[in-house]
Every structure is written in structure tokens, then in C-alpha cells.
Amino acid sequence: MAAFTQQSRVPETGPALPNGRARKDGPAIPRRRSILNLISILSLAGAIAMLGKSSWIMLKAEVSQVLLARAFTQTVATGTPVKPWSWADTWPVAEIRIPRLAASAIVLNGATPESLAFGPAHVTETPEPGERGTSVISAHRDTHFAFLKDVQKGDLITVTRGDGLTFRYAVTSLRVADWNRSGIDAHAPGHRLALTTCFPFGSVVRGPQRFIVEAVMVK
Amino acid sequence: MQSISLPGSAESRIKSLIDRMVAWFLLLVLAVTAFIGTAGAAQLAAFVTPNEMKSGSLLLKSKEGKFLEAPRLGADYTVTVSGPTGRTILTQRFTNPANGWVEGVYVFPLPETAAVDTLKIVSGNRVIVGEVREKQEAKVIYEEAKRAGQTASLLEQERPNIFTNSVANIGPHETVVVQIEYQETIRQSQGTYSLRLPLVVAPRYNPAPIVQTVDFRSNGYGIAVNDPVPDRDRISAPVLDPAKNAPVNPVTISVDLSAGFALDEVTSHHHTVKVETIDDTHRKLTLDTGSIPADRDFELTWTAKGAAPQVGLFQEAVHGKTYLLASVVPPSVAPTGPVKPRETIFVIDNSGSMDGPSMQQAKDALLQGLDTLKPQDRFNIVRFDDTMDVLFNDAVSANKEYLDQARAFVSALQANGGTEMVPALKAALIDSRPNDASSLRQVVFITDGAIGNEQELFATIGQGRGRSRIFMVGIGSAPNTYLMTRAAEMGRGTFTLISEVDQVKARMEDLFNKIGQPVVTGLSATLDGSEAALSPAQLPDLYRGEPVLVMAEAGQLKGTLKVEGMIGETPWSVSLPASAAAQGKGISKLWAHRKVAEIETAATLNQIGTEEANRQVLAVALAHQIVSSQTSLIAVDKSPKRPANMPLTRADVPLNLPAGWNFEKVFGKEVPAPLPPAPRQRDAAADPFMQLAVAEAPASASAPQQVTLPQTATPAGLLAVVAALLAMIALAFRLLAMALTPKHGSPQA
Asked: What pTM did the predictor assign?
């Protein structure tokens, strides 16, 4: 900042000199200056790119849900899976709602990084929602499942499947576990649902911890 | 005038400050690059999914649904060819490198004609023999055994030419030997007999990494636009290269060839072999170099000395029933009447999986095909990757102008993108003259077949084939022969394999010579004098040099097998007395395999419902104990800790190695001593079956099989933070640069 103030005072001092003069006097300074300017420009370009990418992730997450909702409505109407866009490698399988939080999202098939970018996704090796066992649905903590941090015990979760059937679950527990020690048994007795996302919320780095919302089916 | 004098010491201080800042910045860039590079590379290199596997490999289940590959120590193929059938014993040995108990998933290719009937596992010091069960039932038995801590193995069919073997509860540092046996029919065309051992699941030119790259990017490390890591390609290259990702799997192969007739030439097309001549009908072959990496299919062909036998008739009696295999080569008759003009639609696959020599072979094949066209013929070209182009609006006559246009189009093709085969096939099947009997409509489909939606493709052929016939040309070192065979069969054509550039000319000429006109049409077969079920129920038309293959199941074999058809306009028939049939091995298994294929084809053509088809396949496969889409092989070893209450009959083999297990070949000279039994003890506190990732850490209390949860953090936040940091750096450097703007009124002024 010292340099800044020093520079700002310059215009008030004495007559201007052509820049070329100074260059002749000390060639090292201008070379350094151009390096500094170059770094500055590169950094700025990098910053814009990163910001663009960051906004793109959020935008994609929002916009895709609109397309997914349309495809899901069609799925329920026709009874067959409908791809949200022609080149998609996943398709909507369910809609999940938490009425108290007025939250809802379309769930995709297969929790791959690709599908998770567009919406919550059903973990394929677990049963479908509504079936016996524990059905697991995962989504990103900073987009589609950001609302999980507000879920409370006893909250009602409804899941509508592609075949039009709706199942109701009540939240029984909220906990944090490592991704490989989830304690979720896909073939556990009863009809269960688990919503998972990364933990802690608001963190910017990836970590091993997952936030798990467990629920059991209710009438 | 303070600012005008910049004392020498201050100036040098600023200079050195700037130097340090530049250095610091460069260091930061390097560090970020290195971090992104290693994080990305580690993530991609260490783990693979079954789909990415190129050759048979044992994968150990690990974190996040990914698999860690177990080192593979060796594989041995022992093939015995007796006349029209071959039996292969495939033996492989794997070691669990981890300290915990692991489950291995083993993915491997087999010929699409393979009827798999035997599975044996040696785990530590025990031998387990599998048996065929209904698929779901087998899975349940396997899961139960897995939970109970018992060693178990489940062999499932993914595709008729891709199988998965899961092995539960492999002890720490334990060695597992897997042995699979299958029966197949020897392929015969134009007097050449051939045997193919697929050693790779997909062509190695298949850039599966395209998928990985997408993976990578959506994980947030790869910034697609304005890439901050300009050398990403270099950083990522090692993990994108399957040759470096997959370990070298040494393979030994030996073939005992009893052709049943005097042999002329025996050729191994892609590997050098040592040939030992036993007598004029019997040869023994072994790989010359001892062992080879499993990177291309093994292809062996042989021909008969003098006139090739025209007729083959073999039978096998099993469980009170007799099975018959007959092959008849129709006499070659010069075509009568004028040659019909052709309407040939070439379809060429220029998807990414064709990159490298495959693309060149495909282009050469197509150009060769264009050269065979006569002026009265018509043609068109369709090219596809995940997009497609049809060269002309409708088939055009093969004059010079159009041919030149077509050659330029083909020469410019480049391999890129995904493989959307169905739309291209649909486009090729659009026939503007569906009732034109004066010309022959042919679709020549050139591809490596690297797709997973085979059924959809078959259905398209079934619905849309019309008068068109489909000729599949398989390209590359490991084409999907299941797709080729079934598509050609449903399209009433043939299929041709081209593995090397120097085969293109000869094989394409063969193809175009023989497809000018089907030689034999209206074929039918009957077995008089006994109640018999014949397969296939409807015989396909034959092209030059191809045999009629008929199989039959009968209570008691007597009477005559009569094959009738039309060669051109001339009726042709041949009668074979069933009593003349020679003994053949494994014919019942081949009959069952053929029957299953027939039922599945009928289902694809919507002649029977899927459920009905599944029921029929199940019945046939169970009765004949072969692996199919509805049946799996399951082997369970009773835990030594508790009496097994599994509803399984199990054939325990004594500790001596069963016959046919050639340990010297697989293991080298040293026969490993059985591992000490110590790791067998199972602590109630520690879970007997631990995933590899869990096994590395101390075991928690009882942990049933857990669902591993996917990564659910987007890099958006991190990116925003980095963006802010970069913006601050930009500002700082800009200010610094401005500070160095020449000072007005310097002392010299």
C-alpha cells in the first residue's frame, strides 16, 4: 500500500518526462514491470475463469432441475423412463419432497459424478425407494441437498417414483459418518430411506465425512 | 521532492521484493499444478471399474464402488479340438495383496459360442467345484455365504461373450486359482476352420479415458475452458493410456488339434507358435515365446489337405437322450442366370473406439468395397459416431463421379466421439424400393462393435430388415464377436473379421465374392424315424463355402437326417443315416447353447414374450448345466467354523490337484505350498469379510456390508475462493507494477 500512496502523489510533482527516458536509465525496472503486469493479467484471467466455472456449476444445478422436472412429469405420465435431454446418460427416477422445508428435487438414476452435477441421485446398489431395504439418495451439499442441514427428527419426506407411486417416510436420525463407514445396510429389514450429502456444510474442500438423514416408511 | 530521489538501496530492495514475489507466484502455480495433477492422477490410476477392464482381471472391491486390481500372476489356456468341437480349460491364479479379507470380482471375455459348464476354485488349500443354479438363487446363495464368512464363487454371464466371476472371502495374502471350462463349435467358412480365444474384452484402442476425462472434469479438477494447467494432457496421459493402466498379463496357450481329417495349413495369425506334428490329422501347438501379454485375440485357422470333408456327423448320448451335430457343405455350383445388380449401403463406424489402426482398416475395407461395385450397382455410405451423416439422399449409381465423391468422403473420416449405432443402422435400413426383386440390397456394416446396447440393435434389425441383408465386418484386435454373429444372423448375412491391415484386401474380396448371391436358399432339415427337436428350427440362407449346421435332440437316434434346399434354381438334398454318426464330446452342451441363442433371438424378434423366453432359457440351461442369461455357476465352501446349512451339494476334491490343473504352466516350476491355515481363524469381533479399504484400518466392531457413499461436494465453493485469491493477486501485482512507473522529476531531470 505504501507503493500505492507514493505513486498517487507523483502527478503533483514536477513536469512529466517521456517514459522512454526512464527505460534508458534503468532497463531492469520496466522489464520487471511488464512481468508484474503479465502476472496480474494472468491472475485476473484465472480468477474470471474460476468464477465462471463456479457459477456454471451452480447454474447447471438449477437449470437442469427444470428440465428434469419436465422429463419426470412425462415419465409418470407414460410410465417409461424419459431422458431429460437427448444426450443425457441418466434419467429421472423419483421426486423427493420435504414439505416442512418446502424443498423438492428430482432424483436421477445412478450416483455418478455426472448425474450428481444435475440433481440428487439414487445409489444404484441400493433398493429403489419404496422397496424393502435401505434406499440411498445422495446429492451435493452446496446445491440440491443444501436443505438437509435444516432437517429435523420427525420431518416427513415423500418420494414419488417414476411409476407414480408415492411413499412417505419419517426422519428417525441425523448423523455424521465417514463415507466408507456409513453403517447403512442396503438389505436391512424394513422399508428405509437414507439421504446423504457431504459434511460439514459450508466447507469448501472435499472430505471423508458424510451427513446422513435416516428415515423409515410411515403410513 | 521526496519522491524524486529513489535511493539506490531502496531501489534494490524493491527489485528484490519484486523478484521474490515473482518467484513466490511461480512456486504457487507449480504447487497448485502439482496438487491438481497428483490428486487427479491418483484418483484415476488407482481405481478402475469393471467396464474399464480390457482383459480378464480380478478386481478387489474397494471404496466408493471402485475396484483395486489384484496383481495377476498368470493364465493358461489349454484347448482340445476334436473334430467339430473344442473344449477349453482356462486356468488363472491371483493373489490377494492386502492384509484383510477381500471379495474379488473377475471380468473376462470368452467366445460368444462358448457353453460354460464348469467352474473350480482353489482358495488357499481347498478346491471348490461349482454348480449351475437359477441366476437369482445363485446370487442369494452367494450373498449368504459371503455374510457367513465362507469362501464362495459366483460365475455370471454379463453378455454371451463377457462373464463375471465374484469370489468372496479371499484370505490375506491368499492365492486363488480359478478354472473355467467351456465347449464351443469350431467355425467353418470357405473350407477354413477357425478357433478364436478372446484375450481382451474391448479393443485396446478404445479410449475409455474419454469417459474418465468427463468424470475428471465434473469432479472439478479439470477446468474445461481456460485451463489453468496447460500441461494437463501430459499430466493425465499416463492414466489415460490403458496400456499403462492395465498390468501386463502373461498368457500361455496350448492347443491340441485333432481335426478329424488330414491337415494342410495350420496358421496362428497374431502370435508365433511352435507346432508339433503327431500325425497327419493331429497337431500340438504351443506359444513360441512361452507367454504373451493379453492384448490381442488369439486366432488359429486350419485347412484340410486335398478335398475338405463335405459332411460331418457327430452324436453324444447324455441322460438317456442323444444329441446330434451335423455339418454339411453344399456343393459349389457356378451361379446360373445373370448376376443381379446390387444396392450396397456401407455403414462405417468412426467413433473414438476405432482410433488408431482400426480406423485405417475400416477405411481400407470400405474403399475396397467401393472398388468391387459394378456400373449397374447402386450404393450409399453412412458414417456414425455419436452423430451421423448419410452421404447421398438415396442410393446412387456407382459411376465415377459418385465413387470419387465417396472415396474423398471416406478418406477424410477421423475416429472421434461416442458410438450411437442404432440410428445409423436405421438409416441404412431405409429402403426406397422395398419390393424391388431385381436387385439385391446389402448393408455392409463396418465396426468394432464396442457398444453395450446390443439388444436394441438386434431389435432394430428384426423390425426393419425388410429385403436388406446385413453383413457385419468386425474390425480391430478384439471386436465384439457376439454382436457381429447375432446381428449377421438376424440380418440373414454373414460376418467377417479383420484384425490386421494386411488382411483387409483378401477378406473383403472374399466377402464381396461370396455375398453376390446366396448360394443356398429355402433350407430345411428333417430327422425321419425319431422324435427329435431340431435347432435352429429355421435354417438361414447360405453363402458360398459355408456349411449348414444342424443340431438335434432325440430320445433315441435312428432314421435319417435329411437336408433340403435350393442351389440357385436347382433343388438339392442330402440324406445322412443317423447311425453313421461318430462319437463327439460335449455336443449336448452345444445343443443347449444353440437352443438358448435361438430362444433369445425369438424374444428379440417379439415372437415370444420376454418372460416366456426367460423361462425357456432357464429350463434348457438348468437341464444341461450351462451358464446363461438366466443361470449362473455357484460354488460355496463350508466355513470350517460352523456346519454349513446351505442347500448346496458340493463336490469336495481332495487336496491333490485335480487333473488338468497344469501348475507348472501357470505357476512356473515352483509349486507353491498351501498357505498356512492360520489366517482361517475368524474372530467374532472382527468382521470376516472386510472390504479392502476397511481392512487397511483397524476393523470397527461388527460392520455388516455397508453402502459406501458417493462424493457429494461440488468444487464450486473452492473455485470461488480460488477465484477471489487470484483476483487479489492480480490486484497486488497490478499495484506493484504501477509503483514502478517511472518517477517524474528524477534527479537527472
From this structure: 0.54
